[in-house]
Design goal:
The chain is α+β, with helices and mostly antiparallel strands. The chain is built from three helices and eleven strands, in the order αβββββββαββββα. Strands 1, 2, 3, 4, 5, 6, 7, 8, 9, 10 and 11 form an eleven-stranded antiparallel beta sheet that branches. Strand 3 and strand 4 form a beta hairpin. The longest helix has 19 residues, at 2-20.
């Protein structure tokens, strides 16, 4: 009976982990590393900002991080485009050791090796909704570009695409340019 109970508990544990931490889809088209997370939850955090929490299994490790969108988004018309681009602010936020796992695996996917490192609780980014209004993200998918250290030095400035579709429960973390790999990693470290 104990043996059977042990097998049932182990099976439940594996199923539960797979549901909470589904496999992250890794794309490598044209040399870009693009990650698609299939488990995303949203909520208003304790200061009233919209926060998206993602979890997944990436290269055998449980990974997680949060993306926080601040409430103000300012439209700017772009010549030749029908829709405005909306500029605002966001934060990439740590969820502890699982975010550290994410940054470590991301570095390996980028061909880098990290030694001992820490991840800050939050990393600021300017953000732009690309022909979508992030204020409406709970009703419509939105593709955004995040600019880390926009006023900083070239060794820290980086860009990444973050696309969110709440209906599909998907968050994509897509590489903008291979030249941003090292600065992005530096931005996500203390």
């Amino acid at each position: 009976m104990k043996y059977l109970l042990g097998i049932i508990i182990m099976a439940w544990s594996i199923f539960s982990s797979a549901k909470d931490y589904p496999q992250v889809v890794v794309g490598d088209e044209d040399g870009f590393v693009d990650l698609s997370f299939q488990n995303i939850k949203s909520n208003l955090n304790n200061i009233g900002n919209l926060e998206f929490i993602v979890k997944g299994n990436l290269n055998g490790l449980k990974v997680s991080f949060s993306v926080e969108l601040l409430p103000e988004w300012n439209p700017q018309d772009i010549e030749g485009m029908d829709e405005a681009f909306y500029w605002g602010e966001a934060n990439f936020k740590s969820n502890g050791s699982e975010t550290k796992n994410f940054v470590n695996v991301l570095a390996k996917l980028y061909g880098a090796e990290l030694k001992e490192f820490e991840v800050p609780a939050s990393v600021y980014a300017q953000a732009v909704g690309l022909a979508c209004n992030p204020k409406e993200i709970q009703n419509n998918p939105c593709k955004m570009k995040f600019f880390f250290n926009p006023d900083g030095s070239e060794e820290l400035y980086s860009e990444v695409f973050i696309n969110i579709d709440l209906d599909a429960k998907v968050l994509e973390f897509n590489e903008k340019d291979n030249d941003y790999r090292a600065p992005l990693l530096r931005s996500l470290l203390k």
